[in-house]
């Protein structure tokens, strides 16, 4: 099978490389409008590739870059990688931007705009997904996004606002001054 041959080729290249950067993500068929994705994970061949390469090299030599338009659950493979970069949907200069970040020529400063759950069952609509007649029922009320995870004390993979940097920040003696008092 073609995917098995390509996976073996990737393993051989990774074993010779100083560092391996694997790109995995959601195909166009998962990212379209007017329907729900069949799963919250990466496609099976992407997961198999990550796990196969990870078995043959130290995790410190494996970087996984995820390209997608919506949250993916990484639980089944995240511990196999030394680093994971969420790049979302890359534009025409996305490859260069990812290289600049990995090589330290630019500082990653993005923060997550949503919470990333550990598994599909942990998301607010997990109990009702995929719904009936191709319709998801949003029954979570006010417990949308991070509020759901806080209310039900669910562990998450990455919380809203998470993001790492090459720099360490420390704030001290902050003072806020009211310039104009308005209602």
TrEMBL record:
Q: What class of enzyme is it?
A: hydrolase
Give one Pfam family: Glyco_hydro_3_C
Q: Which reaction does it catalyse?
A: Hydrolysis of terminal, non-reducing beta-D-glucosyl residues with release of beta-D-glucose
Q: What positions does the domain Glycoside hydrolase family 3 C-terminal occupy?
A: 7-166
Please give a single GO biological process term from the UniProt record. Answer: carbohydrate metabolic process
Q: Name one GO molecular function term.
A: beta-glucosidase activity
Q: Which InterPro entries match?
A: Cellulose_deg_GH3 (IPR050288), Glyco_hydro_3_C (IPR002772), Glyco_hydro_3_C_sf (IPR036881)
Which key words are in the record? Glycosidase, Hydrolase
Q: What family classification does the UniProt entry report for this protein?
A: Belongs to the glycosyl hydrolase 3 family.
Protein name, entry field: beta-glucosidase
